[in-house]
Specification:
Order of helices and strands: EEHHEEHEHEEHHEEEHEHEHHHH
Distance between the termini: 41 Å
CATH architecture of the largest domain: 2-Layer Sandwich
Strand content: 15-25%
Number of domains: 2
């Protein structure tokens, strides 16, 4: 239970590592307001003494490094923006107004990219789990809404496209999955159904080359894919789906995006969630009368444990609340609503 994140502050040539058990899904909000409030937000809790105590790629659901020496912020987190590339790009555009003269970068490589920025060996972030066959690229007929990958295949000088199920784990199945992928029916034109794709894969059989991208950050994906596709040229496009479209060069119609509406929705989302009070939901599950958490009662009732053996993880107390005045944040959002943008 939690939305775990590592946070890093770089200042005066040194860096400090912080932890929060609950903020990963709010980093898009809490980092939005600029470098001053970002520092106040992160430093609410003391840094971790052991700078090797990082979350790995499984548990690291968000992360950020704010470098006050180089004026750079590298981060990932939030909820919808993890999977929605157009929305994320608009958010980063709006965020830039509060971070003038700063470089804002999205960490496509997840928590491993954050660690690498401050010189941490990225091997400590990697999970050794092998991909499951259930992740194979295919068309789901029973859950068509999960067909979120854009697949294009060039074979015998002809390129076809399909809307399929697939993710980063799918590509880790390697060349063993080629036979089943080539059996997927493709077409010279494709009208995408539903929301924007969250992943893409282009396979060129003649050139023995693949290009791929994902909306969600993934750690060390280049090395892992290369190992699973020996003898093939592999290229990670990060979240640049436009380059996939150029490479495929087939008639693919993606959903039309109203930039002005996306911007308005983000501002409304920020306005609604501008203030958050620090809390530990695990402790709040306690029943007021005897202070015994509900989950503890259930485990005891199921005879899965003894009462004296259950303790609340102290890391769950690492929680931060929003900083800054609500009225000042509303003023920022009001100004952004009145701003004219080039791409409107």
């Amino acid at each position: 239970m939690g939305q775990r994140a590592n946070l890093v502050v770089v200042e005066n040539g040194d860096w400090k590592l912080y932890y929060d058990h609950w903020c990963a899904n709010r980093l898009d909000i809490e980092l939005f307001w600029g470098p001053t409030l970002a520092k106040q937000y992160i430093e609410q809790r003391p840094p971790i003494e052991d700078r090797d105590e990082w979350l790995d790629e499984v548990w690291g659901e968000g992360s950020a490094v704010v470098d006050y020496d180089r004026r750079l912020v590298l981060w990932f987190g939030g909820v919808d923006i993890l999977y929605d590339i157009p929305q994320r790009r608009v958010l980063l555009e709006l965020m830039q107004y509060q971070w003038p003269d700063w470089e804002i970068r999205w960490a496509d490589g997840g928590v491993a990219e954050i660690g690498a920025y401050v010189g941490v060996d990225t091997e400590i972030f990697y999970s050794i789990e092998e991909p499951e066959p259930d992740n194979a690229i295919r068309i789901l007929t029973e859950r068509p809404e999960d067909n979120c990958m854009l697949l294009t295949v060039r074979h015998n000088s002809v390129t076809g496209a399909a809307q399929v199920f697939g993710c980063a784990e799918s590509l880790k199945l390697g060349t063993d999955s080629l036979k089943s992928i080539l059996e997927i029916p493709t077409s010279s034109s494709l009208a995408w159904e539903g929301d924007m794709p969250t992943a893409g894969l282009h396979i060129d059989i003649e050139k023995k080359a693949i290009e791929y991208w994902f909306a969600r950050p993934v750690a060390a994906i280049e090395e892992r894919i290369q190992r699973k596709w020996p003898g093939w040229s592999t290229r990670w496009l990060k979240d640049n789906y436009e380059e996939h479209l150029l490479t495929a060069d087939v008639d693919i119609e993606l959903p039309w995006l109203d930039q002005r509406q996306i911007r308005a929705d983000i501002i409304d989302y920020l306005r609604t969630n501008v203030c958050h009070v620090a809390s530990n939901p695990v402790r709040e599950l306690a029943i007021a009368r005897d202070d015994t958490p509900i989950w503890k009662k259930i485990l005891i009732w199921m005879k899965l444990t003894k009462p004296e053996d259950i303790q609340i993880n102290p890391w769950t107390d690492e929680a931060r609340g929003s900083v800054g005045e609500k009225v000042d944040k509303f003023d920022i959002l009001d100004k952004l609503e009145r701003t004219s943008f080039v791409n409107e």
